[in-house]
Task: inverse folding
């Protein structure tokens, strides 16, 4: 019986997929790579992956750590890694701007997963690449924070990865969690969404046996494990959850807010309104602002931040 020729195109795709999964700054084993490839439909035994990695380590800048078994693989420090040559100068510029904005907000483990893209963008904007105007643009724009900048809290290793996996695959999630009252408990939850608020990342979920949603801070999770059991995703809208003020400590109650504010601090509210139905009246010294908003702790803190510049605050529940 004639020997079947190897599928060259499939082998090429396999090599590309393998190179994309070799990390920088940490090591990965052939077994871990085989499992990741299998999830994409590349069924190969571990020995085949090991042979391929041995060859790639010679041709590319891949460090093959043989000091212990199983061997570990990672991109060498000065190597370019697996680059994306199709990345244009404009796309590189957008990635560099995104990195500047995201780096102070996201945990190091999250940024590390994007390093390959950021490094390619930096290479494309290097002086020898004739990208002078694009590079200058990075010094011409900046996002300015309206609040006191805070460093992101540390998220335990593996928590974000397991949580993201469970969320993507609609899998139950086992958590070891300490709440704001310093109570440490084990929970089985149905992950429904992830949201970033300032430097913090929150998981929106339902506890097993309940049908209401709760938000859990990922930096308070000690460990997370995606279950093999799946669930049917309920009718849940993360955008609606946010619009109801649930990330601002609220129960979703909508109110008709009215207050008087001095003209100097109140001018920006005519430009950046509190709601679509906001109205205002004006005197020589102040504005009377009226808008429909969600009653939240964040709203109360915002009102208090103006001190004596805001007065005569009135809150009426919508429909009352």
Result:
């Amino acid at each position: 019986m004639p020997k079947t020729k190897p599928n060259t195109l499939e082998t090429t795709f396999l090599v590309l997929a393998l190179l994309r999964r070799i990390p920088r700054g940490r090591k990965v084993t052939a077994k871990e790579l085989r499992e990741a490839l299998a999830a994409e439909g590349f069924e190969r035994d571990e020995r085949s992956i090991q042979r391929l990695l041995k060859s790639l380590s010679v041709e590319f800048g891949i460090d093959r750590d043989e000091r212990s078994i199983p061997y570990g693989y990672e991109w060498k420090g000065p190597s370019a890694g697996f680059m994306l040559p199709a990345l244009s100068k404009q796309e590189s510029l957008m990635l560099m701007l995104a990195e500047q904005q995201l780096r102070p907000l996201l945990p190091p483990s999250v940024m590390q997963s994007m390093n390959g893209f950021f490094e390619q963008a930096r290479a494309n904007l290097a002086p020898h690449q004739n990208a002078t105007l694009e590079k200058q643009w990075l010094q011409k724009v900046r996002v300015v924070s309206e609040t006191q900048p805070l460093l992101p809290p540390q998220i335990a290793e593996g928590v974000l990865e397991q949580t993201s996996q469970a969320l993507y695959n609609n899998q139950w999630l086992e958590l070891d969690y300490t709440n704001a009252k310093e109570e440490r408990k084990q929970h089985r939850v149905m992950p429904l969404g992830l949201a970033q608020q300032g430097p913090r990342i929150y998981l929106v979920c339902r506890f097993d046996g309940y049908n209401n949603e709760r938000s859990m801070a990922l930096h308070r999770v000690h460990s997370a494990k995606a279950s093999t059991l799946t669930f049917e995703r309920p009718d849940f809208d993360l955008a609606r959850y946010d619009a109801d003020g649930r990330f601002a400590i609220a129960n979703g109650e909508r109110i008709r807010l009215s207050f008087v504010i001095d003209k100097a601090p109140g001018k920006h509210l005519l430009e950046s309104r509190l709601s679509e139905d906001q109205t205002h009246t004006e005197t020589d010294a102040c504005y009377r602002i009226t808008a429909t908003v969600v009653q939240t702790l964040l709203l109360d803190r915002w009102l208090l931040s103006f001190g004596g510049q805001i007065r005569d605050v009135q809150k009426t529940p919508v429909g009352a």
